[in-house]
Amino acid sequence: MKLKHWISLGAVVLLSGCGVADEPEQVADPDQGRQLYSKNCASCHGRMMNGTDQGPPLNHKVYEPGHHGNSAFYRAVKEGTRAHHWQFGDMPPQPQVTPADVAHIIAYVRARQQKSGIR
Ligand code: HEC
User: Fold this and answer.
1) How far apart, in whole angstroms, are the C-alpha atoms of residue 86 and residue 84?
2) Looking at residue 26, what is its pLDDT?
3) Are 100 and 107 in contact (CB under 8 A)?
4) 2 lines ligand 1 (CB under 6 A)
5) C-alpha span between 26 and 114 (Å, rounded)
6) Digit-coded pLDDT (tens) for 14-72
7) Is the minimum distance from the CB of 42 to ligand 1 under 6 angstroms?
8) Torsion sign across C-alpha atoms 7, 13, 19, 23
9) 19: left (phi over 0), alpha (psi -120 to 50) or beta
10) Residue 88, number of CB atoms within 10 A of its CB
11) Which protein residue has the closest C-alpha to ligand 1 atom 2?
């Protein structure tokens, strides 16, 4: 890992210590995120985040951090979302997925997006 990455990782660890009300204090773990994603999101968003006939790909420019920030993930899981970007219909709320779970899932999604050059 390059030094730059270690520095930004350090910043994430420091920031997450602040305990923002809605977001869990635990450090997000992409490996845990992968398992949670497979269990709760892959049936619609695709095993490889490339979408299915039930939902759009999350590894897509539409979902880059600047367009759909992390709060969009917390909101979609908690409240569901109305079809507005695609023709798949609405996303139903996922009450079995906790905010702490979402933090792990986001870490996994962002890691995969970065590998695809989406940032
Ligand atoms: C039953 C199918 C289904 C499941 C399960 C599902 N989604 Fe979705 N999701 C959708 C659809 C359909 C959309 C697209 C709505 C649209 O047209 O913009 C969507 C959109 C989203 C969006 C974009 C929200 C926005 O603000 O535009 C996010 C983020 C998201 N899903 C995350 C997740 C995560 C994380 C999980 C797993 C915890 C998950 N979804 C599980 C169907 C699903």
Assistant:
1) 6
2) 66
3) no
4) no
5) 22
6) 555 444 556 556 689 999 999 999 999 999 999 999 999 999 999 999 999 999 999 99
7) no
8) positive
9) left
10) 15
11) 44
